[in-house]
Specification:
Elements lengths: L1 E4 L4 E3 L2 E3 L6 E9 L8 E5 L4 H13 L16 H4 L24
Antiparallel strand pairs: 1-4, 2-3, 4-5
């Protein structure tokens, strides 16, 4: 898996500012720090040394109870906050918006 990260493109006056964007790509590996019955997957950079990976996994194990892996881990969570709903009228036809073409050459 490859993750891209870096500053996002900033928009001002409808134009994209790509002059000062420095993006990088990291290959990541998936590591399961859970059990067979309750897998808990984390992603870490493939570029980490073996020692750094071991230290990160050890840190995750040390604080495994601090992280939330699913909604069952949060029994007091108000579902009105956690569930996203779109207020769409079923009898109204969706309208496709016009495409916007940004001039990236200037």
């Amino acid at each position: 898996m490859i993750l891209s990260h870096g500053p996002s493109n900033s928009l001002s006056n409808g134009r994209s500012n790509l002059n000062n964007v420095n993006c990088t790509e990291d290959r990541v590996i998936q590591v399961d720090v859970g059990s067979r019955d309750h897998p808990k997957s984390i992603s870490m950079s493939e570029s980490l040394s073996f020692t750094e990976r071991e230290e990160l996994i050890g840190l995750m194990w040390e604080y495994i109870d601090v992280f939330v892996w699913n909604y069952k881990d949060m029994p007091d969570l108000d579902l009105q906050i956690a569930i996203h709903q779109l207020n769409i009228k079923p009898d109204v036809k969706p309208v496709k918006q016009q495409n916007v073409d940004f001039d990236l050459t200037s």
